[in-house]
Amino acid sequence: MRKHDFTLEMAVRDYECDMQGIVNNAVYQNYLEHARHECMKSVGIDFKQYTMMGVYFVVVRAEIDYKSALTSGDSFAVGLSLIKESRLRMVFYQDIHRLPDQKLVLKAKITATALNQQGRPEIPKEVEDVIRARFQPE
Q1: How many angstroms separate the CA atoms of 77 and 74, rounded?
Q2: Which neighbouring-strand residues pair with 115?
Q3: Which of 10, 24, 66, 102 has the fewest Cβ atoms within 10 angstroms?
Q4: Cβ atoms within 10 A of the Cβ of 20, count?
Q5: Which residues are catalytic?
């Protein structure tokens, strides 16, 4: 299990399960997104505030490897690590583990960027500074 920069614990709700009684595959992306948003808020980056300023954070690629399923009532932890892959791309390495046994549910690589008011990719300097300071210390 990789060391995480941030971890968020959650629980499966009944309505997130499909006819087979397991979490629907699309729901896992909601879990991953929620953890990313909570992580960013915890370091002072509020997506809503940036949206109000005309800066939009967007996912440009999602790679997910499903390993096992969650079912209704399961508790789980979403862990993430963040790196600045290039001038315009941030990568969130995320995984979900069932609790309390730590069974791996999925591993994901989510690539994101920000779009400025002209719709062009541009990660705000203050976001770069936070990533450098909090996630990639020198």
Answers
A1: 10
A2: 56, 121
A3: 102
A4: 9
A5: 18
Token pair, residue 133, equals 């300071």
Cα–Cα dist 20/12, whole Å: 14
The confidence score (pLDDT) of residue 135 equals 87
**What angle is formed at CA 43 by the lines to CA 79 and CA 26, rounded to 5 degrees?**
40
113 burial class (0-12, 13-18, 19+ CB within 10 angstroms)? Answer: buried
Instruction: Count, in order, helices (H) and strands (E) of the chain.
Output: 3, 5
- Residue 133, phi then psi, degrees to nearest 5: -75, -40
pTM: 0.92
Q: Which amino acid is at 13?
A: R
Give the model confidence (pLDDT) of 89-106 as tens digits: 999 999 999 999 999 999
Report the alpha-carbon angle 1-136-27, nearest 5. Answer: 50
Quick count: other Cβ atoms within 10 Å of Cβ 70? Answer: 23
Look up residue 94 and give its amino acid.
Q
On whether the CB atoms of residues 117 and 136 are closer than 8 A, the answer is: no
pLDDT band at 2 (very low <50, low <70, confident <90, very high): low
